[in-house]
TrEMBL record:
InterPro entries: Glyco_hydro_76, Mannan-1_6-alpha_mannosidase. It comes from Orbilia oligospora. This is Hydrolase 76 protein. PANTHER family: MANNAN ENDO-1,6-ALPHA-MANNOSIDASE DCW1 (PTHR12145). The keyword Membrane applies. Coiled coil: none annotated. It holds the Pfam family Glyco_hydro_76. The lineage of its organism: Eukaryota, Fungi, Dikarya, Ascomycota, Pezizomycotina.
Amino acid sequence: MGYTAQVAPYTYNDIMPRLRKNAQLAAATCTGGASGTACGLKWNTGPKFDGIMGLGEQLSALEVIQNTAPFVAPVGYLVDIDNGGVSKSNPNGTGTRGGVHNRNSQYLPYRLRNYEITLADRVGAAIITLVIVVVFALGARFTMIH
């Protein structure tokens, strides 16, 4: 229901009151078990734990509660140069420049490797690709035989 309200906004007014009520009831059933946090599955019986515990019950309660999350009011908008941003560019910064990260000599020892693709890289990639294609083809052939 939560997804329907997102992709079909005209259903929001019908779905959200029901979804919010179910989310509140689901959260109210999460009082069981040894730790007092296990959730029940019978939300229509009121805000009490029904004694049924398991992964399915936990996930059902989590799902209905999380379905209300996309509809929480946004905190604010991103700020850029057109609506109040004041950051100035710094051409001497050490971020990405010319496609290579951190060109400053102090960072060079920490680079993982030279980013040039060598012939050995290409050959290795070709071999791995060939092995994957052969395994996939043999698997498909095996499935067709049996």
